Amino acid sequence: MTDRQNYKQIIESIFGVHTESFNPGSSLTNNVIGALNNGDYKKFSNAFTERLKRLNQIYSAQDKDRKNLLVQVNAIATNTWEGAYSELVAFDFLNRDKKYTPDPISLNKDIDPNRTFAVELGQTGSANLDGWFSEYDVYFDVKSLKDNVREMLLGICNEIRKQLKRDDIAIIPDYPLTLSYRNIQDKRDLLLKEFETKIDQVKKTPFIQSQVINNLKYRIVWGKGIAVTMQVHNMHQLAEQYHRIVFLHAKKFVKGRPFFLVFVVFPWFNGIITDFLDSNKKFYRAFARRVFCQYISTKTLFKELCPNFSGNQTIFDLTKKLSGLIFLEDKCIEERENESENVSSFIYLNPNADNKITASVFAEYIRRLTRSDFDDFIYDNY
Question: 49: closest CA among 11, 90, 87, 4?
């Protein structure tokens, strides 16, 4: 049985017959559906299917958002599984407190693009948010927190292998954690050309030092073998670099109502964060504080950071449209006993937000969600 056929059976057993929208005969696979079809991942399989069962109950056959939920459930069987997985984590976790969310969170919410920065960023048509708390008129969008630099570099390495017509070599990038994904993005063609000129199949080049980007190296193993790289993780330095990914999602920021970005962390698409010596908590807090407080005194326009932006707002003006950041660590691989959701949450409120949730019923809900860390930066806002 293929991984897709197995996943089809799982979906139909929970949501009903013919609720799958992918081709079960395809051999396409990924980390999640591969694990679900592998007996060595029983803990993960149990935790993941229990999540689907909870979501099936929350968004019953009569619920208007069931079709939107099923879009993400089916997307787990595609190449875009990371975003879908993150949304399922968030929908499951954020719906868990029935006292404060008696009605299911509305999914896939379209709003007037002028209510966000979509227009300023050149988007036509409605702005779309992943979720909306109708009782409180609070919006959120879900993103996967992952190492974009590594993802881009591995894409370059895969392209080189295809050009060489070699599937028996391992190309492993070695780079500092301060390397910017924008730097990789801007110089991708130069990096490809550099690699092509420096690699020698006859001499079997073992190592390439990039001249295009400082401190970027590639270790190359020809045939069978193991290559090892090491990175030193300084969480505050990492937050300085990675907090900028928030600005990639600026078109989602809602101008006139509370809005949260929810970042989901999962080991199979995140190779950065661990909980060793509370390094995860240090990173999330430093990340949030940089977003909320770093730009208070700067008059830098957002268009200088994002040339496609047509508005005249400063970077700080945009950060004020974020009411808070929520980081959700998915623990389904571990499947901890007595933790039905298998999620740890780290929640941070923006002390400079234009649309605060302080002293509201929704603020009580947010505080009840917190399991690992919470901060409103009231006494750390400078």
Answer: 11
In a 13 Å sphere around the CA of 126, the CA atoms on its Cβ side amount to 7
CA nearest to 52, candidates 8, 21, 115: 8
- 209, β-bridge pairs: 217
Under 8 Å between Cβ of 377 and 348: yes
Torsion of CA 91, 95, 100, 102, to 10 degrees: 110
How far, in Å, CA of 233 to CA of 242, rounded? 13
N-to-C CA span, the chain: 58
pLDDT digits (tens, 9 = 90+) for 153-192: 888 888 888 888 887 888 888 877 567 677 888 899 999 9
Q: Which residue has the tokens 């976790």?
A: 93
Residue-wise pLDDT for 59-117, tens only, equals 999 999 999 999 999 999 999 999 999 999 999 999 988 899 899 999 999 999 999 99
Residue 306: which of 378, 246, 266 has the closest Cα? 246
Model confidence pLDDT, tens digit, residues 189-213: 999 999 989 999 888 999 999 999 9
- Phi, psi of 117, rounded to the nearest 5 degrees: -100, 20
Q: What letter does residue 103 receive in the DSSP assignment?
A: S
How distant is the alpha carbon of residue 207 from its chain centre? Answer: 32
Cα distances (Å, whole numbers) of residue 108 to 87, 124, 142, 199? 10, 17, 11, 47
Q: How many CA atoms lie within 13 A of 252 on its CB side?
A: 24
Environment class of residue 60 by beta-carbon count within 10 Å: exposed (0-12), middle (13-18) or buried (19+)? exposed
Quick one: tokens of 256? 């006139």
